[in-house]
Amino acid sequence: LYQNAPVFYFSLDDEGRLLVCNDTMLRALGYAIHELVGRPYSEILPEPQRSAFPARFAAFLATGTAEVETRWLKADGTIIDVWLTAMSR
After folding, report:
1. What confidence category does residue 4 fall into, taking pLDDT thresholds of 50, 70 and 90?
2. Which of 27, 33, 72, 81 has the fewest CB atoms within 10 Å of its CB?
3. Which sign does the torsion angle of CA 18, 24, 28, 31 carry?
4. At 26, phi and psi to the nearest 5?
5. In this structure, are residues 34 and 12 in contact, taking their beta carbons and an 8 Å threshold?
6. What is the pLDDT of residue 1?
7. Predicted model pTM
8. Per-residue pLDDT, 47
9. Residue 9: CA atoms inside 13 Å, Cβ hemisphere, count?
10. Which residues contact 77 (CB under 8 A, 6 or more apart)?
11. Are 18 and 38 in contact (CB under 8 A)?
12. Which segments of the chain does DSSP mark as H helices, in order?
């Protein structure tokens, strides 16, 4: 269910690197698993989201929740809008 859910699922470590993501996210963004897992989440963000990420991630770590409209870079350079809801463990 996780891999083929109709939404993107992913987890970050405390440094903001992708630990895991589902197949739906990979297919929609056009990346292979090795291109994302272990890499900084900020690499899929265009500016100005990329430069704003450290402060937003610090706030997320402090509060344990986040809900934000952001943008992501697909492998082909296309930018898509993403509504992100996150919770810490």
Report:
1. confident
2. 81
3. positive
4. -60, -45
5. no
6. 86
7. 0.90
8. 93
9. 9
10. none
11. yes
12. 23-29, 33-36, 49-63
Single-letter code of the amino acid located at 25? M
In Å, the largest CA–CA distance within the chain is: 34
d(CA 74, CA 72): 6
Question: What letters, b where the CB count within 10 A reaches 16 and e where it falls short, cover 2-39?
Answer: eeeeeebebebeeebbbeebbebbbeebebeeeebbee
Q: Coil, helix or strand for 56?
A: helix
Please name the amino acid found at residue 51.
Answer: S
- The dihedral region occupied by 60, where left means phi > 0, alpha psi between -120 and 50, and beta the remainder, is alpha
| Tokens found for residue 71 | 């943008």
